[in-house]
Structure to design on (1011 residues):
């Protein structure tokens, strides 16, 4: 378009020059000099001359020349005004139109008034100048009429130059009216006149006629000829004849149009370069490339653009190189050469990135060109995009980062190609640029907010499709950074939590899932399915972390928040509480902590809980209570378990075993006995079960004998059998009747037989029982058998002791005393044969004592009267010698007794036996001890008397109850159990003592009493 404007201006100037000067040449006038005047001078002269003409009457000889001169001044001023406007950069140049109209008016008046008054040359000059002005002023009809009139007059009055110009004028009018055939004829006629000025211009016009007449090749040759012929490029000026570079440039530029019409190659381009002024080569080659591109000659256009970029013919600005690359890329794409298109596309954008682009206005157009290429390309591959298209999008997005939509569309292409990482990068860029616009409040396009959100979502989708967890995480975080309150914010936070969960960052995941499920606004009202999933995973994370306390708390919280899943969450809370209880039971020792957990278990909602959990809750309560020594709570727990429906036989038995243990630990033997009677005791034989029941029955104050009899009917344990029979005897109060039943069985064990016999005899005094025991030789020699022996022999020994003579008063009694001693010896031998050391010691001690007494008493008898001095001494000596035998015998017996006295253990055992004896047995032994004390040596006698007189410690009933309560409160305290055992020993409660001893041994061995 700009070249067409320039061409029009050129034509106008040529015409004006012709009007102002050419006619003068034809009429023989000298060339006017007013060209050198400025517009102000012309205006001054015009005003003066106009005033003169107005004052000059028609017919005056000076009037026509004045009119001609006025017309010339108007015409020249019009030319100067147009030149000034052109220099100012006009596009539609209209300066001087008024002056040309006035010039025409002045010439017309002059022509009218010149008839018969001026020379023919003057009239001819007027005709030619009017013709030109008519043509320039758009009055082609009048101009054509005058040109033809000039040509009709011919050389008679006009020069060959004027005639040639007239023909040229007719050609211009025909050309302007698109009558190219007629125009060509007129232009050819003008060329035949060698004097026709500006023949290069005429050839130029003929070439265009050829082009418009379909003879482009001929027109191209003519233009090339013009460019190669300096004479055709030369014009006259004030500086003389010289090549018109402007005309040369226009011809060369228009030659590009002919090249495109005829087709051209690189050689043609080289020719064009050689024929083109150096300062216009770049713009002309650009015109050629643009024209070729416009007319679809893409390969030729690409060739020219490539030559411009790479050659040194013309130095392109960076913006021009960018544009060249953009055009090449677009045309390569059109030719289907997509790889070349991408390469050139990237080169152009690389140039932009490297050196920038100026000015902004033209660069904005360039960006649109790049953008259009990508979008057109995308449109053509809408259903099946290629990798080349994606490359173009990526290059564009890297160069123009602020183009939100293009980055987004590029991401869509990458998505279609399953290039997930590329898609993520493009969507991310789109989102970031979109966010910047949205935050600034200056949105370039109404679609930007939607594209911004869509880009973030698409980035996440592609990151997920990539399978790369790191890329996914970056996408999620990117969404939250740019759009923390966006529509997908909840889902994004959920996915971030899920990544942490899968990665093993369980603690982080637990808190994130909890924050969503419990606190996020999305889950406050709508509660989509994802909320519950978040809740589930929050709890799963806590399970993995083994944080049962927190798990229970949050599960209960979720049960209230999500009513439809209340049962499910309550079940989780229950399991957590049961796990806590198990852990506490396994490692905790603090009583307060144990009891606190018991309380929480008791408060746990078991409604709807499966049987297994209900049972486990009771079991855990029991274990915790057991460890906390909280037997009251343990009783409640185990009682609840026993009451459960559907318990298997083994489960119920196990629960009752625990209950039985609890009762025993608290000495609640009545409850223990009731529980035990309902149990099978699978690990015990039937006999042992009856034995167990008998013990509990006895300890609880119930009749144990039925169980003992059942035991006897079932057992094969001989030791156990004897123990049971002794227990039956004891429970009967050691009755003679029970003795009659059991004695023959007890006789198998002499020691037990004797012990039982002593108890029965002590209570009944039955000589039959005594004789039964003493008849058993093995039983007779036992400690208890000897007690019965002493009881039987006591009467005879009492008789012996009663027969001891009184003091010797005279010699008459000596014979009787000696006789008694002989009997005493015989009795002592009888006693010795009994085999009881105590009786033997006592009787021998009496015999020794009586022999010594007889010796002493005989020596102490009065001396016969009359014996004095030596006689008395001799007498005493004779007496002493006579009775020494008694003293010697006493000493001999005493020596034997000293051997017995040396056995301290015998005495201690007797003292211990006496001290341990209770009730009837003690009465029997106390009497026996006193009896023995009368016979035994003094040292032994005193010990026996002390032992017999020592009172048995009695236990106050309230002391017994206090000890029992102490054990109940402290079932595992050894000191408390030992104290109760000692009390029960004092009371003679052998079964209770045996039971407590068992507990003591258990605590001493393992620190606890086994269930």
């Amino acid at each position: 378009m700009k070249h067409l404007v320039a061409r029009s201006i050129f034509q106008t100037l040529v015409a004006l020059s012709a009007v102002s000067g050419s006619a003068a040449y034809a009429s023989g006038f000298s060339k006017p000099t007013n060209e050198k005047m400025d517009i102000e001078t012309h205006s001054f002269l015009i005003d003066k001359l106009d005033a003169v003409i107005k004052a000059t009457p028609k017919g005056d000889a000076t009037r026509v020349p004045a009119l001609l001169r006025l017309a010339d001044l108007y015409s020249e001023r019009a030319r100067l005004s147009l030149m000034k406007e052109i220099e100012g950069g006009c596009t539609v140049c209209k300066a001087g139109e008024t002056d040309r109209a006035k010039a025409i008016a002045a010439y017309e008046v002059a022509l009218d008034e010149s008839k018969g008054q001026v020379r023919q040359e003057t009239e001819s000059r007027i005709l030619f100048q009017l013709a030109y002005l008519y043509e320039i002023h758009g009055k082609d009809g009048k101009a054509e009429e005058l040109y033809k009139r000039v040509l009709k007059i011919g050389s008679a009055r006009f020069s060959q130059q004027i005639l040639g110009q007239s023909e040229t004028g007719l050609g211009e009018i025909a050309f302007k009216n698109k009558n190219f055939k007629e125009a060509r004829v007129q232009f050819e006629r003008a060329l035949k006149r060698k004097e026709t000025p500006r023949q290069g211009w005429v050839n130029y016009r003929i070439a265009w006629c050829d082009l418009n007449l379909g003879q482009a090749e001929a027109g191209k040759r003519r233009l090339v000829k013009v460019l190669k012929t300096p004479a055709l490029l030369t014009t006259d000026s004030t500086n003389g004849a010289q090549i018109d570079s402007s005309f040369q440039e226009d011809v060369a530029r228009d030659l590009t149009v002919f090249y495109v019409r005829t087709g051209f190659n690189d050689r043609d381009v080289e020719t064009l370069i050689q024929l083109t002024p150096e300062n216009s080569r770049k713009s002309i080659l650009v015109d050629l490339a643009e024209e070729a591109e416009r007319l679809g000659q893409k390969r030729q256009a690409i060739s020219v653009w490539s030559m411009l970029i790479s050659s040194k013919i013309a130095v392109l600005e960076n913006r021009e190189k960018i544009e060249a690359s953009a055009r090449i890329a677009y045309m390569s794409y059109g030719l289907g050469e997509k790889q070349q298109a991408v390469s050139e596309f990237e080169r152009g954008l690389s140039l932009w990135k490297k050196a920038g682009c100026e000015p902004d206005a033209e660069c904005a157009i360039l960006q649109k060109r790049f953008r259009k290429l990508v979008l057109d390309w995308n449109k053509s591959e809408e259903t099946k995009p290629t990798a080349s298209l994606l490359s173009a999008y990526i290059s564009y997005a890297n160069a123009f980062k602020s183009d939100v939509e293009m980055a987004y569309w590029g991401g869509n292409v990458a998505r279609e190609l399953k290039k997930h990482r590329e898609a993520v990068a493009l969507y991310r860029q789109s989102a970031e640029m979109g966010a910047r616009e949205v935050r600034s409040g200056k949105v370039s396009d109404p679609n930007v907010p939607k594209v911004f959100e869509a880009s973030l979502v698409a980035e996440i989708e592609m990151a997920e499709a990539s399978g790369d967890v790191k890329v996914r995480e970056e996408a999620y975080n990117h969404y939250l950074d740019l759009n923390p309150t966006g529509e997908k914010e909840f889902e994004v936070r959920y996915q971030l939590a899920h990544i942490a969960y899968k990665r093993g960052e369980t603690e982080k995941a637990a808190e994130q899932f909890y924050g969503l499920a419990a606190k996020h606004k999305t889950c406050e009202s709508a509660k989509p399915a994802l909320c519950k999933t978040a809740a589930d995973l929050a709890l799963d994370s806590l399970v993995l972390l083994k944080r049962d306390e927190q798990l229970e708390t949050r599960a209960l919280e979720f049960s209230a928040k999500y009513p439809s899943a209340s049962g499910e969450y309550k079940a989780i809370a229950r399991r957590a509480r049961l796990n806590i209880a198990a852990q506490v039971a396994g490692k905790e020792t603090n009583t307060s902590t144990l009891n606190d957990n018991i309380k929480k278990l008791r408060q746990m909602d078991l409604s709807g809980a499966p049987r297994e959990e209900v049972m486990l809750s009771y079991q855990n309560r029991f274990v915790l209570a057991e460890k906390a020594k909280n037997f009251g709570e343990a009783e409640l727990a185990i009682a609840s378990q026993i009451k459960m429906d559907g318990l298997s036989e083994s489960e119920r038995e196990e629960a009752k075993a625990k209950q039985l243990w609890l009762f025993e630990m608290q000495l609640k033997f009545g409850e223990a006995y009731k529980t035990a009677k309902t149990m099978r005791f699978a690990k015990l034989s039937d006999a042992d079960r009856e034995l167990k029941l008998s013990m509990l029955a006895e300890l609880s104050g119930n009749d144990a004998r039925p169980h003992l009899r059942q035991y006897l009917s079932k057992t094969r344990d001989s030791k156990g059998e004897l123990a049971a029979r002794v227990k039956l005897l004891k429970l009967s109060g050691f009755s003679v009747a029970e003795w009659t039943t059991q004695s023959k069985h007890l006789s198998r064990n002499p020691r037990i037989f004797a012990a039982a016999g002593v108890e029965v005899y002590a209570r009944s005094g039955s000589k039959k029982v005594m004789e039964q025991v003493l008849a058993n030789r093995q039983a007779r020699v036992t400690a208890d058998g000897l007690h019965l022996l002493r009881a039987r022999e006591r009467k005879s020994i009492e008789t012996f002791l009663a027969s001891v003579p009184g003091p010797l008063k005279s010699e008459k009694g000596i014979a009787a005393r000696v006789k008694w001693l002989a009997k005493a010896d015989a009795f002592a031998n009888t006693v010795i044969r009994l085999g009881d050391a105590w009786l033997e010691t006592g009787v021998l001690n009496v015999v020794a004592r009586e022999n010594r007494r007889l010796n002493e008493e005989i020596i102490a008898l009065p001396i016969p009267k009359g014996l004095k001095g030596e006689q008395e001494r001799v007498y005493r000596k004779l007496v002493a010698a006579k009775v020494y035998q008694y003293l010697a015998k006493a000493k001999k017996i005493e020596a034997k007794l000293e051997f017995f006295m040396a056995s301290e253990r015998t005495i201690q055992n007797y003292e211990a036996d006496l001290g341990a004896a209770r009730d009837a047995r003690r009465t029997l032994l106390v009497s026996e001890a006193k009896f023995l004390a009368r016979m035994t040596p003094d040292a032994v006698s005193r010990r026996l008397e002390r032992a017999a007189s020592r009172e048995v410690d009695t236990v106050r009933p309230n002391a017994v109850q206090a000890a029992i309560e102490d054990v109940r409160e402290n079932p595992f305290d050894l000191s408390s159990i030992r104290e109760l055992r000692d009390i029960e020993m004092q009371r003679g409660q052998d079964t209770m003592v045996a039971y407590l001893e068992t507990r003591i041994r258990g605590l001493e061995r393992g620190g606890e009493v086994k269930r």
Remarks:
- The longest helix spans residues 869-901.
- The longest strand covers residues 234-235.
- The two ends are 113 Å apart (CA to CA).
